[in-house]
Amino acid sequence: xxxxxxxxxxxxxxxxxxxxxxxxxxxxRQGVEVLSMRRLGRELGVRAMSLYKHVANKxxxxxxxxxxxxxxxxxxxxxxEWRKAMGDRARSARQVFLQHPWIAALFESxxxxxxxxxxxxxxxxxxxxxxxxxxxxxSNAYRALLMIDSYLYGFTLQExxxxxxxxxxxxxxxxxxxxxxxxTYQYLFEIYTHLSSQNAGISTRLxxxxxxxxxxIFDALERLRENGxxxxxxxxxxxxxxxxxxxxxxxx
Amino acid sequence: xxxxxxxxxxxxxxxxxxxxxxxxxxxxRQGVEVLSMRRLGRELGVRAMSLYKHVANKxxxxxxxxxxxxxxxxxxxxxxEWRKAMGDRARSARQVFLQHPWIAALFESxxxxxxxxxxxxxxxxxxxxxxxxxxxxxSNAYRALLMIDSYLYGFTLQExxxxxxxxxxxxxxxxxxxxxxxxTYQYLFEIYTHLSSQNAGISTRLxxxxxxxxxxIFDALERLRENGxxxxxxxxxxxxxxxxxxxxxxxx
DNA sequence: ACCTGAACACCGTTCAAGT
DNA sequence: ACCTGAACACCGTTCAAGT
Lengths: 252, 252
Known about the structure:
The structure is a homodimer. Chain A is mainly alpha-helical. Helices cover 60% and strands 0% of the residues of chain A. The first copy, chain A, is built from eleven helices and no strands. In chain A, helix 1 crosses helix 4, helix 7 packs across helix 8 and helix 9 packs antiparallel against helix 10. Chain A is flat, with a radius of gyration of 22 Å. In chain A, 38% of the residues are buried. The interface between A and B is large, with 71 and 71 residues. The structure holds a DNA duplex.
């Protein structure tokens, strides 16, 4: 009935940023599945077709909101000791992903694409740099990041699903355990029984699990680092001429 | 124009299995994004509405095809030494995922849901059992599976995207390296240069990387296993009365 | 019993037309 | 210059109607 739609400030002149921020907000509140061009237009007090002046298409919108999320991940400054740097970044990424759980649906084909936006190129370049400056060989830096990211993505993927699932209804292990036919799945039963006997809630437990797994991976990578290029193929060794030890800070 | 559509055997009387198998085939050939009820019906020589006699809705179809994929993963028999068991299963899962790359889009909210189908319950129950029978405490079995699965899902997720991306055009690192502004992203440049200097193709390299990361994780888990319940919360210890040592085989 | 036509409330996107 | 109406080719799903 009103000519200009829902929120008071919809008369700002529409821009890529305004569209993308509205998209993130909409996804946060309702999930990616309701994120359509038409709905997004409605949210901005405009018809869907108007959006196409500022974004190429829906794909562009999805890429854009992934970039917004990625840029919310704290990037450790060059010079940070690698365990702290990789740990801080992994923890920050996990927190950001949990704040925007819909991002899991975009992991596939967006977050981990090889052809990338500047935001994502800078992000992975910095992480590789941090590893290189801490004594990782080229291969091992690649290896380490691949391993940390695999763990980070895989863990968060599972975690987000569990939270979405029993989130609102707060269905806990205590209830789940009774839904599983225990004679058939004795080991699952055993786990659920064990988990529900613990005082810690699911959040606290997953925090602990994530941290522990990360430390185990870091321990493994530390051994890799010390062993240098031991696992590389024969033509690999070329250690960089250590072009920049510490003096190249990307951010504050 | 023909009354019964495309393939010769479309006059079999439509069943859940026939529908799900057609869905997997369609996804394999064209990707999940083209998998619609209407398209699926067309594929079976029938209108979309007919499908609703055999499947509840599209969600049911998607759950169904995930089950089909999961059931293609080889499940090691009880009694297998844990490193071999977990390694075989991870390698088999990876192969299956690479054969059905669209599965990555369903990782979110389907593969890792807590409320599960019998196929998936049996699958994870067996894996937990294998760990328990090899001396893992209840907590550590849970921990180990969470960690292995995180790595498996995360790694495969990234790998599938890379393959889909440069798959058909076979765009290799040699070409990618020239698209990245090397002054801005020196560490990325360094990696791409290094990777493209190796003789091994991307497939071979990722095989190696996957195997190496898996071994590093197994090494870490072996230490966890030996340390028993060291990382558990105080009320945890309860080791199972070893109800079945070896005599409970689930499969051939 | 099994299939379907028509309908409903949606999609993304284009393009000629309006202000 | 910026927005939009109408249109196209799609969605998932329901339900009364056909055979």
